[in-house]
Amino acid sequence: MKELREAIKTYGRGLGNDVVKVDMFLNHRIDTALLYRMGEEFAARFKEDRPTVILTVEASGIAMAVAAAHALGDLPVVFAKKGATVVQSPDVAQAKVYSFTHKRENIIRVDKRYLPIGSRVLIIDDFLADGQACQGMMALCAQLSCKVAGIGIAIEKGFMPGGKNLRAMGVHLESLAIVTGIEDGKILLADDD
Ligand code: 5GP
């Protein structure tokens, strides 16, 4: 998506050789015009998959999930909560996710009432790196007998294995921008995504 690529080129910063900082427009300060355009772009790419609900994980995924949900006809958005709770509850589905940014394992969980059996779930997140967050959300869907209608990502780090693994599983994965590498703080982007 051209506008997102332009924003990454203008404001994005690379940390080390594998972290992309987009705090200026996506993760801390939000460029709302760009956010709503991203919502429309997700809707265009996934409307044929007929999602009935959007699932994301707190916190950075929520804004873009809401933008996409609105563009898809005001679908509900469910966000998995993060925390250390491992207390089993009959009302909650949970999965373990190793956090790329915090370098620790989180439990993500959703209340079963919010993803009814048979829901067609569109998973949305800001970044795709190793694919742990997406795999965790897919595990929640499987536990709750929901179908994963697709996975929409704002920024895929194409030099990490998450995208390749999800595509190999046959999931409909769409990334609005693909980072191919980081060199001296500069973010390298695929031209076409
Ligand atoms: P994964 O689970 O695919 O390894 O990583 C995805 C999750 O880690 C996303 O939910 C995102 O919050 C975070 N993440 C991964 N890589 C980056 C990055 O380069 N920059 C930022 N800001 N977050 C990232």
Q: List how many beta strands DSSP finds.
A: 10
Strand percentage lies at 35-45%
> Structural class given helices, strands, pairing?
alpha/beta
What compounds sit in this structure? guanosine-5'-monophosphate
Low-confidence stretches: none
Report on the structure:
It contains 6 helices and 10 strands. The chain has helices at residues 2-11, 23-27, 32-46, 61-71, 132-143, 162-168; strands at residues 13-15, 19-21, 53-57, 77-83, 92-99, 104-111, 120-128, 147-157, 173-183, 186-189. α3 (32-46) crosses α4 (61-71). The radius of gyration is 16 Å and the shape is globular. The relative contact order is 0.18. The protein binds guanosine-5'-monophosphate (5GP).
Write the layout of secondary structure elements.
Elements: H1 2-11, E1 13-15, E2 19-21, H2 23-27, H3 32-46, E3 53-57, H4 61-71, E4 77-83, E5 92-99, E6 104-111, E7 120-128, H5 132-143, E8 147-157, H6 162-168, E9 173-183, E10 186-189
Parallel strand pairs: 3-4, 3-7, 7-8, 8-9
Antiparallel strand pairs: 1-2, 4-6, 5-6, 9-10
Helix pairs in contact: 3-4
Provide a compact summary of the structure.
This protein has helices spanning 2-11, 23-27, 32-46, 61-71, 132-143, 162-168, and strands at 13-15, 19-21, 53-57, 77-83, 92-99, 104-111, 120-128, 147-157, 173-183, 186-189. It is of the alpha/beta class. It has an 8-stranded mixed sheet with strand order 5-6-4-3-7-8-9-10, sandwiched between helices.
List the defining traits of the structure above.
193 residues; alpha/beta; eight-stranded mixed β-sheet; two-stranded antiparallel sheet; 6 helices; 10 strands; 31% helix; binds guanosine-5'-monophosphate
